[in-house]
Amino acid sequence: MLIESKGRHGQGGPSLCLSGGPVGNAGASIQDGSSMLQVSRLRWRSVGMLPQSSQPEGYREGGAWSLASAAGGLAAHTEGTSASSATAAGGKNAEGSSAGASTTTATGSLIASSTGSSTGSSTTTATAFAAAQGAGSSAGVSTATASIGAKADLIGTAVGASTTTATMTAIGHLAGEATPFTELSPQSLATAVWSALAADNAEPGTMGELLNGAGGGSSPGAVADAVWDELTAGHAGAGTFAALVQQDVYTAKARFIDDDLATTDRYVISWHKNGSVVTSGVTSPTIRVVKVSDGTDLIATSTMVEISGLSRFRYDAVGAARVASGSSYLAIFSATIDGVVRSWDYVFGRDSG
Fold first, then answer.
1. What is the rounded CA–CA span in Å between residue 13 and residue 10?
2. Which of 2, 58, 68, 223 makes an SS bond possible with 54, Cβ 3.0 to 4.6 Å?
3. What 3-state class would DSSP assign to 304?
4. Do 317 and 264 contact (CB within 8 A), yes or no?
5. Tens of pLDDT along 108-131?
6. pTM score, two decimals?
7. CATH top-level class for 250-349?
8. Is there a contact between 77 and 54 (Cβ–Cβ < 8 Å)?
């Protein structure tokens, strides 16, 4: 509650003397210009007034009608032209309006607050150890001076223009479905892989290089020709398949001739190596004929005779060594060829020849 007066703040007291019912109860009196303040009962004090306020506000002992019951209050009076400056550690809030001229001087150890309006000019001087808050607006010239040890807040409006330039980044996710025979379908991808040019996929260390090297750019026919035309001498390592298929194959052709008129049975044999008749190097040719019925010898192992240096051999059996009708026999031929004994079996009978 601020009571306006013609005078200035101080100990001289207000120039208005109040007494009677409107201000207080009966018996209350306030005398201006006296150091004595006689008030029998001060019930006129407003309920909503802060304990930091005196009446009138801004007056101290000897001049106030009612002293403040607690420290920390701040009263203001503005007049004339004023200048305001401030040094703040934090910020300063100010809002409001003033239609007159006011001067505010305050010293507060806790909070210094100022609310007012001015269309002229005002001067505000404040020293606050905790916070200084001010709200107001001035249409004239206003200067504020303050020393604030904690925080000074300022509320205002700034009209201007700002430009913001930013570079935005984000993560994008792509989801899709490959349906048959589209660009990314399995069929299309497979076709693209198999249709790719070998020359475009030959980087060292890649599967393209490996496949190009394996194929050699050759057709199946060229590969087959290369295999069959390869010299066998270069593929004869012991235990290899090449060595196995390169082994010589030895066979024989035997013939039994039943000569009833000459009372002689004749056996003729020729030896073959890899399908060709061996014409030399055949030694120790023999024959043995075994009865199939009981495994006994019809002809014990006997030497065969070369036919006129042709490397074909014969054996003539007579008498008890001849085969009987209706019986089966096993002829076992042997000879040493290329340093190894070779054998050949021949099953026959008189009725089969």
1. 7
2. 68
3. coil
4. yes
5. 554 545 555 545 555 555 554 444
6. 0.38
7. mainly beta
8. no
